[in-house]
Amino acid sequence: MSKYVPKLSELKQEFEKKKPALLKEDYSGREWWDLPVEFRDGNWCFPGKPEVLEDLGFPNPRKWAATDADWQLPDGWEKTIRDGLKSRLKRFRSFKLFLDTCVRCGACADKCHFFLGTGDPKNMPVLRAELIRSVYRNDFPLAEKILKGFSGSRKLTAEVIKEWHMYFNQCTECRRCSVFCPMGIDTAEITMMARELLNLIGVNNNWILAPVSNCNRTGNHLGIEPHTFVQNIESLVEDIEDLTGIKVNPTFNRKGAEILFITPSGDVFGDPGVYTMMGYLLLFHHIGLDYTISTYASEGGNFGMFTSNEMMKKLNAKMYHEAERLGVKWILGGECGHMWRVVHQYMDTMNGPAKFLEEPVSPITGTRFTNAAATKMVHIAEFTADLIHHNKLNLDPKRNDHLLTTFHDSCNVARGMGMFEEPRYVLRNVCNSFHEMAENTIREQTFCCGSGSGLNAEEFMDIRMRGGFPRASAVKQVREKHKVNSLVTICAIDRASLPTLMKYWNPGVSVYGLHELVGNALVMKGEKKRTEDLRENPMVGFEEEEE
Amino acid sequence: MKKVVMPLLLTAILCIIPYIGVQYAGLGYLFAVVIPCASLVILVAGFLVRLVIWLIRPVPFRIPTTCGQEKSLDWIKQDKLESPYHFWEAAARVMGEVLLFRSLFRNTKAELYAGPKLAYGSTKWLWLAGMTFHWSLLIIVIRHSKFFFSTVPPIADLLDNMDRFFDVTLPAFYMTDALVLAAISILVIRRLRDPKLRLISLPTDFFPLFLILAIALAGMSMRYVTKINVLPVHDQILTLMDYSFILSGEIGVLFYVHLFLVCVLAIYFPFSKLMHAGGIFLSPTRNLCNNSRAKRHSNPWNPDMKFKSYTEYENDYRDKMKKAGLPVEKE
């Protein structure tokens, strides 16, 4: 395991000591603003490299580390933050309202996965927001100024910036707290604003900014250039042929295709994302879809979202731009979490209207996706659920009998889109063993993987394993009860981060994309006898007969 | 516990001010006429200003928190309340929050067990205390409208009668009086007992609770202990509403304490977290429809962003693209 994470036994002992309480220490007689901010191995992400910042034209490029005493903030940084705060309070009703209306009832306190995993009081969503509110109260409304000391306000200092950097990077913008808040306060919104502000003075995270810069340059987060992108998918095509005897035939940058398919680049390059990609390719071949993949708009995800709303717009613009150039009718999107928050709640507002596209219609079933009439982009789980509902797929769920599954709702798709039934419907149709996790840990109450919103960095492993603990604990319970060995998800960050989390907390549980299971179950016309799944693991009941 | 003592002390001082002012300084006119009128103006104007400050700010993005199935395929059942698609569905969702505190009803309590394992128990105490507190206050306020009219409005009369359902004492005991005291006690005690709440709470969280408690206690003492004669009070308010500011009749000093504390609450209201009463209607995670893929939502300040166009991309990678057999726009 990583050197940035304590041994499992040590962490277990820590939990054992404080149970059943969640707070890690006794804080009686102390106030939260007196608690020190301590950066140590495993609880901070490496800052953006100077060349990355220069490439993006971002302020204050320099070499620094969170453990430094002096963060080399630019001259006049206090004014930059104050002006930035003012401007955002003007532009976002949400931000202003969320700073004004909190009654500190505490309903959100134990809803955050980072609080549950760290026991750090400043990870209670209410206190996370108070980190900004305390400064806002000090600087802004007059009446609160008169009541200083009474209303919990404080000065903006370099220590406060350190605290913001620590705790707004221990929030994955998962929105679970906002489900429980009686005022509907969404900490994701506050974290997004805080990260915008911190970026103004060069306080940042390389694991976010490097992908942003890559995506701007090459079209995808991983910085894959066009020829490599094609090669990689072609090698997956070869793997598919070896396994099934079927030669699928994806096309790239092809004008006049009916549909443009966009998925996170993790599906093209990362393990186990590539198996999900193989699933998509098999599915599209199976139904004879007229589609193309772009090497330019080759990223579904959008790390701009974790940087600023402007950057989110800039990176997202490629999707419509490419769809227009290729002359496709509509866009089909792969499995991803924050990608779908952007597509569902932001894309049309930022880069629409996409008048050059048509209201999506499934060419196979004729179903009109009226729910995507404006954005003209359909989620692959909606698309596949519709295919299965109309009986257009030849599926043999027995081919997934070696997988005893449970389903992890991805935060953004759950709480930023409301897609719960479609993936479950697909899953039930492609495998025979599916058990839900405890009800407080799924659907709108789902727990984050602990590594979302650009926090999937190796050097952040301590906090990631703690933040993922609530999810891991829920998986453990279905593993013990139903022998679950497969965690199915529809998010690329999940596919990248949950394997590590499972290895740490629940060894023996593997992570799958939904369409990997679809790919396993599809009975392709003219295929050879299948004995192995897409990972070349033997399928149960399909073993080669003894000669 | 400075943050508890400070607001408690403040409340006590606020109780003493009208007592001294009326009893010893003879400032009855100030406390019965000037301050109530001023505080009412501040409450109404302040509330409106705060609402306007929120309302003039744009809602750049459509960001409902979806707590139920979206509207998608015909055969998948949409959760109309938790994932509203039409305006009236979103309106129903907001009213559910305002009238029933639906999100708070979901509340759970997480606990750590050996293993380590997490378990989540349902916990409705906060919801129950919050509902009791707010609804009792509303009924009490409506009940008070009988002081403002020469003939009691039927709704006030009805609520008054219902509230006196257990007609065992003289004067009859109001249920809401007991309920509001119980609710305030729970709300204060949980802030003191739970170590998480102790850390979160600010003096501004205790102050309104203490203030409302003091208002209720002063009011109840008048009714049940000193058994104040309400007729001069009634007359006084009616005279006031006739725009004639003349002190009439004898009114007990306890009434001035009660009234002054209400005025303080009214003045404090627009400048404090109590404004959540207005904010709850505007929360963009609750009052927006989850239909942003079907209907375009506009952002009035949508910034122009220069992005890397396909042409620039092809210029950068043309040779590599050609080698990989990718079609190019320009040879």
Secondary-structure map:
The complex is a heterodimer of chains A (547) and B (331).
Chain A: H1 8-18, H2 50-56, H3 77-91, H4 93-100, H5 113-118, H6 125-139, H7 142-146, H8 158-167, H9 176-180, H10 187-200, H11 206-218, H12 226-244, E1 259-262, H13 266-269, H14 273-287, E2 291-293, H15 309-326, E3 330-333, H16 338-351, E4 377-379, H17 380-389, E5 405-408, H18 411-415, H19 421-430, H20 461-467, H21 469-482, E6 486-489, H22 492-505, E7 510-513, H23 514-521
Helix pairs in contact in A: 2-11, 3-4, 3-10, 4-10, 6-10, 12-14, 14-23, 15-16, 17-19, 19-23
Chain B: H1 2-23, H2 28-55, H3 87-100, H4 102-105, E1 108-113, E2 117-122, H5 125-144, H6 154-163, H7 175-193, H8 195-200, H9 203-225, H10 230-241, H11 253-268, H12 276-279, H13 310-323
Antiparallel strand pairs in B: 1-2
Helix pairs in contact in B: 1-9, 1-11, 2-11, 5-6, 5-7, 7-9, 9-11
Describe the fold and architecture.
The complex is a heterodimer of chains A (547) and B (331). By secondary structure, chain A is mainly alpha-helical. Chain A has two domains: 197 residues, no CATH class; 310 residues, no CATH class. Chain A starts with 7 loop residues before the first helix and ends in a 26-residue tail after the last helix. Chain B contains 13 helices and two strands. Chain B has a two-stranded antiparallel ribbon with strand order 1-2. The interface between A and B is large, with 125 and 103 residues.
